[in-house]
From TrEMBL:
Top-level taxon of origin: Bacteria
Keyword Signal: yes
Keywords, alphabetical: Signal
Protein name (database record): Toxin-antitoxin system YwqK family antitoxin
Organism field: Undibacterium amnicola
Xref: InterPro entries: MORN_2
Pfam family, one: MORN_2
Length: 402
């Protein structure tokens, strides 16, 4: 190995060679072409042949003579109009700027010469009118991209001409191509639309008013059963999902009046339809921030009885959990409070109590602010006090003195 090669790690040599092979491959893909500019033979890879020149470079297949591509050159710099051909038929054309960003119309064509895609680009970003057609010339997608999501709209059709999807802007913008004023409910009354897959299956249905979805239903591709629904009412959005058997499984209620979507309630259901969990949320101003926080969580046995009930509150800067658990007969089993220190850590505080099945108090533990038990009391099922101990840090204890 030469001294020069020893200066570079093997990995670097492999990477650099990979780039070399890629460059050779790119050049070889056009190795059988002949290019000309203003009647003179030129090469895209030899700047000496194009230096200072302006015009359109045309490259043809050396064997067939069919046009392969065209590229604009301005004062020796290759940018501007670009066209690509397949078997002499135009398949792609666009315009780029000197920095390489595309600007203006970009068009794609099918093998039969029909226009199948037309996009508008603004200094490298898609903006304005975007359209797609089938090879037979039938419009299948239309989109108008504005400065924001609210100023953008789109529609897509199936191969049979049914609507596949629709997204509305904050006002009608798709005319004269599409009457989105009617479709999106901008004429003073709501509009109901059914959406379909290319195979003809019903995909979804929506009710829109002034461009906003008021109700929607999503259907399973294979079975046609309802998979999810949503309903907007008084700035509250209720989203529900369903299982294979048609029973409700999850439901979320969101407050859209806040700057960002805020939870109001989350519900969970067993596959048999039984209610098994509910969470409630509130918006609170805490530490100078408006936060969406969990305030209550209730879980249920399959027989309908409450299995646990947790309530959350702020006490100063502490986030407090007041917890209760119940038997499947609805009897209180345990109760106690905790400081939530993190997602995985909680510290017991105050008095924690547990109960016998007959409802009488069974035990009572007193916790200090550090989460340590300092007093412990027990009773028998008849309600007689059995022990009342002071508990020390080393675990020892003695009868509590009043």
């Amino acid at each position: 190995m030469s001294n020069r090669l020893r200066q570079f790690p093997l990995k670097t040599l492999v990477m650099n060679c990979g780039l070399c092979f890629a460059a050779l491959f790119n050049q070889s893909s056009f190795a059988s072409e002949d290019c000309s500019l203003n009647g003179e033979s030129v090469s895209m890879y030899n700047g000496a042949t194009t230096a200072g020149k302006t015009g359109i470079i045309r490259c043809k297949d050396r064997d067939t003579g069919k046009l392969l591509r065209e590229r604009e050159i301005k004062s020796g710099k290759i940018y501007g109009l670009a066209r690509q051909y397949r078997d002499g038929v135009l398949i792609l054309e666009y315009t780029d700027e000197e920095n390489g960003q595309r600007h203006g119309l970009r068009r794609e064509y099918a093998n039969n010469g029909k226009l199948i895609k037309e996009e508008t680009e603004d200094h490298g970003k898609r903006k304005g009118l975007q359209r797609e057609w089938t090879p037979e010339g039938k419009l299948k997608r239309l989109e108008l991209i504005g400065n924001s999501e609210a100023e953008s709209a789109s529609i897509r059709w199936t191969v049979d001409g049914a609507i596949n999807s629709l997204r509305c802007a904050n006002k009608p913008i798709l005319a004269p191509h599409v009457d989105d004023a009617s479709l999106c409910g901008f004429k003073g009354k709501s509009s109901k639309i059914n959406y379909f897959h290319d195979g003809g299956q019903k995909r979804a249905s929506e009710t829109l008013l002034a461009g906003v979805v008021q109700e929607s239903t999503q259907f399973d591709y294979n079975s046609g059963k309802i998979r999810s629904t949503s309903e907007l009412k008084n700035n509250e959005l209720t989203e529900t999902s369903y299982g294979d058997n048609g029973n409700k499984r999850f439901q979320v209620v969101l407050n859209l009046a806040e700057k960002t979507r805020a939870f109001i309630r989350k519900s969970e259901f067993h596959e048999n339809g039984s209610f098994i969990k509910e969470q409630k949320f509130s918006m609170l101003d805490q530490d100078g921030r408006r936060r969406n926080v969990l305030t209550e969580e209730t879980q249920f046995y399959l027989n309908g009885q409450t299995s646990s009930q947790d309530r959350y509150r702020y006490e100063g800067k502490d986030y407090i959990l007041d917890a209760k658990t119940f038997s499947d007969k609805g009897k209180l089993v345990d109760t106690g409070s905790y400081v939530i220190e993190s997602a995985y850590r909680r510290r017991a505080i105050g008095v924690h109590q547990s109960y016998f099945e007959n409802g009488k108090l069974a035990a009572e533990n007193h916790f200090n602010n550090a989460g340590k038990i300092y007093r412990q009391k027990t009773w028998n099922e008849q309600g007689a006090l059995m022990n009342d101990d002071e508990v020390f840090e080393d675990g020892s204890r003695k009868a509590y003195k009043k």
